[in-house]
């Protein structure tokens, strides 16, 4: 996958998580965190959209996510599935169980930590 497609996919994942807040608002319309969370996710997506293609933390995340598919000692798709599950959990908690990050770079750093954990886990397998 090329960088621009990957970036568009990441933004789409965040926007889908934001749209999912609408379902939560339908269930509990009095919860103010839901609207704040949705706005924080849309803001995050816009910040990512505005990043230039040479933004170092974004490129680093792309490179590490790409590496997931090249890990040895793993069934096909297993490392990616593990990482994407962690990313979905992060987005589900964003602004509700977890405060929004102060910057897009903090968000990218957290994602890099998660992908690094996954890579390390599979590299350490015997």
Can you characterise this structure?
There is one protein chain. The chain is an all-alpha fold. The mean pLDDT is 90. The chain has helices at 3-27, 32-50, 56-68, 78-93, 104-123. The chain is globular and about 50 Å long.
Q: Low-confidence stretches at least 5 residues in length (pLDDT < 50)?
A: none
Largest beta-sheet characterization: none
Helix/strand-derived class?
mainly alpha
How many runs of DSSP E, i.e. beta strands? 0
Radius of gyration: 15 Å
Q: What letter string, H or E per element, gives the SSE order?
A: HHHHH
Mean pLDDT: 90
- What is the beta-strand fraction? under 5%
Give structural attributes.
126 residues, mainly alpha, 5 helices, globular
Quickly describe the structure.
This protein has helices at 3-27, 32-50, 56-68, 78-93, 104-123. The protein has 126 residues and is mainly alpha-helical.
Architecture blueprint of SSEs:
Blueprint lengths: L2 H25 L4 H19 L5 H13 L9 H16 L10 H20 L3
Helix pairs in contact: 1-2, 3-5, 4-5
